[in-house]
Amino acid sequence: MDRRQFLQTSLAVPAALSLPEGYAAMFDDKPKRVGIIGPGWYGKTDLIRLMQVAPIEVVSMADVDKHMLDQAADRIAARQDSKKRPRTYSDYRKMLAEKDLDIVLIATPDHWHSLAMIDAVKAGCHVYQQKPISTDVVEGEAMLAAARKYNRVVQVGTQRRSTPHLIEARDQIIREGKLGKIGLVEIYCYYPMRLNANPPAIAPPDYLDWEAWTGPAPLRPYNANIHPGQWRSYKEYGNGILGDMCIHMLDMTRWMLGLGWPKRITSEGGVLVQKKSIANVPDTQTATFEFDDVTVVWQHRTWGNAPDPNDTWGATFWGDKGTLKASVFRYEFTPLYGNKATVHRDVTYELEQYPEDKTEERLEKHVAPAIRYHMKDFLAAIATGKKPVADIEEGHISTATCILANVALESGRSITWDAAKRLAVDNDAANRLLRRSYRQGYTHPDPKTV
Question: What is the full per-residue pLDDT of the chain (450 aa) written as tens digits?
Fold first, then answer.
């Protein structure tokens, strides 16, 4: 992309997503040099969206899966203006040791997020960090501390904050008071996304370093479903459906309503139906997050029918003047009384502006525009020194709040949260679960010493 094209595509954005003066100037001297840790499905999705909005050079890639790494390097080389093939590394630390990157994208499985992100900011890189940022609360605290200590911009991949129709819903429905007093928000996911099988343990393929993939997590036997894709069905590697899907809707709700930490968290559920599966994350879970004067309730089921087959992942804001339903596909505002018409907006696609979206393998076409705007906001934050819309602190609050719901479920007690101390009040069982044990050979990050 030449500079003229870049200016045209970068500045043609909705008013709520407008870019600051001097944004394009950051690319005057030379393209930003970019590396990626974990160029699998969503890693490539994020990287290609970045390539679409800025004249960058993808310099290097790291992954413990050689097949995935080589395929990604070939694909990116074909898309680069220079046609250069990125350097490839089996160990991301060797990639960072080159000290030649401005930006690093991190899209590893969740249990590697904290170590990779902290190492990246220590190496002087700004980071685009996939969500959830961490697998325990203390990891997130350490990540936030590292971003601030090394003065790096960290944008979290909670791109609902950069979704045009959701920005409109926030600004023109919620902020204009059309819902009135909001007392309850229901957030939910009914996707059958949990592993519902019992695959046998087998030897890892020769192109995958299973020891390195496991990293700080407990070493489980390998099976053909666990990588790539179904690792989210295991507590050892992530935060379950809450960590994967609730974080998006909870973060969207916090952003729309201007909420910080909840005061109280409760949760119930477990593996209630899919008991024959090797997966160990809940197939059914309800979590309640109590804020000052609004309650947010999450529910997921990975079995059975959704209450509304057209609304399987989203949020419903209940106000005394109306109701707002919001999702990645649309929003719909219905006034309480029938004297005003319902307002409906669908997701914005950009298939004509970016025709390559039409043929990209596994691309969620409805999400691509939001990722592009999220990348532009990330780059604008680097250019101006301001915090991005999904700053690491916001990502930490949303991630940790979901983790606390899992902690409440595991400990069997509700949690009263002291946001200043980052501790559960009078709840030793919960506080013991704020930090996971790391496997021998790996050191858990400490917020005080990063």
Answer: 444 444 444 434 555 576 666 566 666 668 999 999 999 999 999 999 999 999 999 999 999 999 999 999 999 999 999 999 999 999 999 999 999 999 999 999 999 999 999 999 999 999 999 999 999 999 999 999 999 999 999 999 999 999 999 999 999 999 999 999 999 999 999 999 999 999 999 999 999 999 999 999 999 999 999 998 899 999 999 999 999 999 999 999 999 999 999 999 999 999 999 999 999 999 999 999 999 999 999 999 999 999 999 999 999 999 999 999 999 999 999 999 866 789 999 999 999 999 999 999 999 999 999 999 999 999 999 999 999 999 999 999 999 999 999 999 999 999 999 999 999 999 999 999 999 999 999 999 999 999
Paired tokens of 272: 């209630």
Instruction: Name the domain count of the chain.
Output: 2
Residue 280 CA neighbour count, 13 Å, CB half? 8
Task: Give the strand order in the sheet containing 126-129.
Answer: 87-89, 57-62, 33-37, 103-106, 126-129, 154-156
Structural domain includes residue 446:
no
**Judgement on whether residues 305 and 378 belong to the same structural domain of the protein:** no
Co-location of 294 and 386 in the same domain: no
Domain carrying residue 139: 3-161+361-391
Please state whether the predicted TM-score (pTM) of the whole model is above 0.85. Answer: yes
Tell which residue, 223, 247, 248, has the closest CA to residue 236: 223
The reply to whether 134 and 188 lie within a common domain is no
Give the CATH number of the domain where residue 415 resides: 3.30.360.10
